[in-house]
Specification:
It is a single chain. By secondary structure, this protein is mostly helical. The chain has a single domain, classed as Rhomboid-like (Rhomboid-like fold), CATH 1.20.1540.10. The chain is 51% helix and 0% strand. Helix 4 crosses helix 5 and helix 5 runs antiparallel to helix 6. The longest helix is centred in the first third of the chain and has 21 residues. The radius of gyration is 35 Å and the shape is globular.
């Protein structure tokens, strides 16, 4: 796999997303198999006794569908960010994990909020706005990919279902936009960078000349100053008596 490293693809690309997937599923299976009520450790906005909520709530899920959708999406988007922005991946990953829960603690309804949806919203928003803010061709392709895969997330920020924490989705989206704005000047990996544009003044005029004109440039059309022009070689005109105009001159 070493020959893929020049494209930014390596074994560590999926390390953190894989660890997240394993840990989230281990907690879920422990709760379901052992019957340990871990969901009570979710975040309760405004409750000082729920100070640990921003750290614990992303690891807790209500059912199989909930954890499957979150883990698959986070694995994919996490690997995409790890590939595109390896220098700041750890910061984006950590901020997207913690910051949405802190914001949710202030703006959420006084219910128990669980799930990694806020985390996912932050990372999806980061990928989308990273391309939009830069007007970067290759990152804009990733932005369009986010729209194609997660365009329905726009409905998730609306209070259409009382069982869904739309405040958590809002919190994640806001954090993702803020991260994208903060790191907007950071270039992605080499394989994703825009090709350098040739400046107009650097274009050689010879490239725009007619081929005939380029050939004339290499010929000695005019001799040095003060020297007579060489006469053309070849047969000269002569009169009937054998004389030529040059001899008469």
């Amino acid at each position: 796999m070493s020959h893929w490293r020049k494209y930014g693809i390596h074994k560590g690309l999926f390390l953190w997303p894989s660890l997240w997937l394993i840990l989230a599923w281990s907690i879920f299976l422990l709760e379901e198999g052992a019957g340990i009520p871990l969901r009570k450790f979710g975040i309760v906005p405004g409750d000082v006794h729920s100070w640990y909520g921003p750290i614990t709530f992303p690891w807790l899920h209500s059912d199989v569908n909930h954890i499957v959708s979150n883990t698959i999406s986070l694995f994919f988007v996490g690997a995409l960010i790890r590939y595109s922005f390896p220098k700041i991946f750890d910061r984006v990953w950590f901020i997207s994990l913690i910051a949405p829960g802190i914001l949710l603690w202030f703006i959420g309804r006084p219910n128990v909020h669980i799930g990694a949806s806020a985390w996912l919203y932050a990372m999806v928003a980061f990928v989308f706005f990273s391309g939009v803010l830069r007007l970067h061709i290759k990152l804009l392709a990733q932005s369009l990919l986010m729209v194609f895969l997660y365009g329905s997330f726009a409905w998730g920020v609306l209070p259409h279902d009382p069982t869904i924490s739309y405040e958590g989705h809002w919190s994640g989206a806001i954090v993702g936009v803020m991260i994208a704005v903060y790191y907007r000047k950071l270039e992605p990996i080499e394989s994703l960078r825009n090709e350098e544009r040739v400046e107009e003044e650097e274009v050689l005029w010879d490239d725009w000349k007619h081929p005939f004109e380029r050939e004339l440039d290499h010929e000695k059309i005019s001799p040095a100053s003060g020297t007579p022009s060489p006469r053309p070689q070849g047969p000269q005109f002569r009169y009937e008596d054998g004389s030529s105009p040059d001899e008469l001159a």
